[in-house]
UniProtKB/TrEMBL annotation:
Gene3D superfamilies per record: Rbstp2229 like protein, Rbstp2229 protein
Superkingdom in the source lineage: Bacteria
Name under which the protein is recorded: DUF1885 domain-containing protein
Length: 138
């Protein structure tokens, strides 16, 4: 697949900058929320809602998160990084579907990117090129 989704922190976003630690914290919070839902349902909802392990890696001095699928026949993985646009300096979070990604990874990537964008009140550029605005536009 090898596609990317972007969450840009434009004017009106909840934060003016984002770090990889911020993104990891949001993913851990997402896992916690789904585990609480699972307790209410008396079902291991977290395993279905977040079928990945989170690993921090670095390549050429650039840190990133790798979400590795726990059920490899359905979910293989996602890669998440943070950076800034060169021309405008706008910070963004990038979610990448690697070549071996499945349709399950695409669906989870959309789900996670929407959650992160909503929390950061950012501008979400989905894998298919469509844009969702989670910030108040003035």
């Amino acid at each position: 697949m090898n596609k990317s989704a972007y969450i840009k922190l434009v004017k009106g976003s909840a934060q003016t900058d984002v770090t990889l630690a911020d993104v990891k914290e949001l993913l851990v919070r997402y896992q916690h929320m789904t585990s609480l839902t699972g307790q209410q349902l008396d079902w291991d909802y977290q395993a279905a809602a977040f079928p990945y392990t989170i690993e921090e890696q670095e390549q050429d001095g650039v840190p990133y998160l790798v979400l590795k699928g726990t059920e490899t026949h359905l979910y293989r993985g996602l890669v998440i990084g943070v950076s800034q646009e060169e021309d405008s300096g706008i910070p963004y979070v990038q979610l990448v579907l690697p070549e071996q990604a499945t349709h399950g990874d695409l669906a989870k990537g959309n789900e996670f990117s929407k959650y992160i964008a909503k929390q950061l009140k950012g501008e979400l550029h989905l894998f298919n090129g469509r844009i969702i605005y989670y910030n108040p536009r003035k």
